Amino acid sequence: MNHFTLAGRERTLLMSLMILGLVCLGITYITDDALHSRFWSNFLHNSVFFTGIAFLALMFYAANLIALSGWHVVFKRIWEAFAQFLIVGIVLMFIVILGLWLGAHHIYHWADSEAVMGDEVLSGKSGFLNPVMYTLFTLIILGVWYFFATKLRAFSIEEDKVSKWDFSVHEKKMRVWASWFLPIGGFTSAAIVWQWVMSIDAHWYSTLFAWYCTISWFVSMLCITVLTLIFLKSKGYYHEVKADHFHDLGKFVFGFSVFWTYLWFSQYMLIWYGNVGEETIYFRERFDNYPVLFYGNLVINFVLPFLVLLRNDTKRKMGVMAVICSIVLVGHWIDYFLMIKPGVAITAHHALEGGHAASEAATHGAEAMAHAVSHGAEAAEHVSHFAVGFTIPGLLEFGTFLGFAALFAYFFLIQLGKAPLVAKRDPYIDESLHHHVV
Questions:
Q1: Is 30 exposed, middle or buried (0-12, 13-18, 19+ CB in 10 A)?
Q2: In this structure, are residues 399 and 21 in contact, taking their beta carbons and an 8 Å threshold?
Q3: DSSP-assigned states of every residue in 353-419
Q4: In whole angstroms, what is the distance from residue 18 CA to residue 399 CA?
């Protein structure tokens, strides 16, 4: 079978999970504090997470095109379908933008004009961190990403109809478009990560942060690819996908889990060694008040995949791959939870108290250090108590995650059914069908 059809049972299940996600968001909003910080941070968390996965599918697909890779061709339509979710990402992030302009949420400290006026750090970053730039960067960058996603998918589908004599010209066009997208996607993704995630802790910065976020997205995308292939094979599709393809996907999950850990350690080690106050406050907050997630992050996203996928045979077993990829996917979702929630908690605390203690110091010398210490102490005092939804994810957070995951799955499966599953006229299809791992 080379055409996928979303069956009624799966459609009903995904719809039910989407309704569950909406219900969880509704309950979160009703039971939240006056600023609805838990609701908005949950919405931003999942919107950023799944939009980034769609973007990394497009990036990896483009990278394989440039590399003249053939191993992935048999299931490349899955990555093309993932990338189409970017249009949904635009809608989701537009809701966050509306909330920003209407003052409906206090996720970003820099969005408070009074805080910016009295803060040298926020004032210095105000040319980049402001509602206008946030809106323009989000809509333009996501729009450009979606344009490339639709362009490359159109070329791929058209490939099924061209004569064999046109393949060289057609493939060259695809590589040209992919070569344009890679640098554009690389540079713009860093800027968008700074605005969406890093600016939540607006007084903090890290040159490794964009890399760290991107690799977390990438490993998550690989895990969803494995889970999707296992699901489709269980339904009688993708007989052409063999254990060797899973072996390579497993190697990517293994390798980039190690690379994610390298970035995690590099960022932490350099900031710890430098011991600069305005840098250490980020890790001090998470180390002191979120120890379960701080250490659990490493266990789930490094120790577990490293030990399980170290053996060659485990990468070829679909049962093992399904379990480990499910756990690692949730692990990287928790990774983004840990990036977002502590900063939102601190910002909401200052907004509720009506003060801006984090905005009273200069950026240099002893004053900056004293401010960082006092700010960290105040934040620690605020979040040291246990709070479900901030200290750890609660049932509402996991329910919201399931709703967004179902939305992602439903949308890309619908897109997957609009074209043949296997691009049988791709010039590298024979290489992919006979792919063998020694």
A1: exposed
A2: yes
A3: HT--GGGSS-SSHHHHHHHHHHHHHHHHHHHSS--BTTTB--HHHHHHHHHHHHHHHHHHHHHHTTS
A4: 9
Please say if the pLDDT value at position 375 is more than 90. no
> Mean pLDDT across the stretch 143-149?
98
How many beta carbons lie within 10 A of that of residue 139, not counting itself? 14
Burial of 338 (0-12, 13-18, 19+ CB in 10 A): middle
Measured CA to CA, the distance from residue 331 to residue 308 in angstroms comes to: 15
Q: DSSP string covering 94-124, please?
A: HHHHHHHHHT-----GGG-HHHHHT-HHHHH
Start-to-end C-alpha separation, the chain: 29
Angle at 169 between CA 167 and CA 171, to 5 degrees: 65
Angle made by CA atoms 176, 178, 181, in degrees to the nearest 5: 115
Alpha helices by DSSP H, listed for 206-303, are: 209-234, 243-274, 277-289, 291-298
The CA-atom distances, in angstroms, between 48 and each of 20, 52, 189, 245 are: 19, 6, 12, 29
Coil, strand, or helix at residue 239? coil
DSSP class of 303: I
Cα–Cα–Cα angle for 223, 227, 233, rounded to 5 degrees: 145
The pLDDT-based confidence of 159 (bands split at 50, 70, 90) is confident
CB 153 within 8 A of CB 181: no
The alpha-carbon radius of gyration of the chain (Å, integer) is 22
Strand residue runs (E) in 149-202 = none
Cα-based distances in Å from 417 to 6, 175, 349, 422: 7, 25, 47, 11
> Residue 237 above 60 pLDDT?
yes
21 Cβ contact partners less than 8 Å away, ≥ 6 residues apart? 399, 400, 401, 402, 403, 404, 406, 407
Under 8 Å between Cβ of 13 and 367? no
What three-state secondary structure class fits 72? Answer: coil
Q: How far is CA 117 from CA 72, 196, 203, in A?
A: 52, 22, 14
**Exposed e or buried b for every residue in 405-438, given b needs 16+ CB within 10 A?**
bbbbbbbbbebbeebbbbbeebbbbeebeebebe
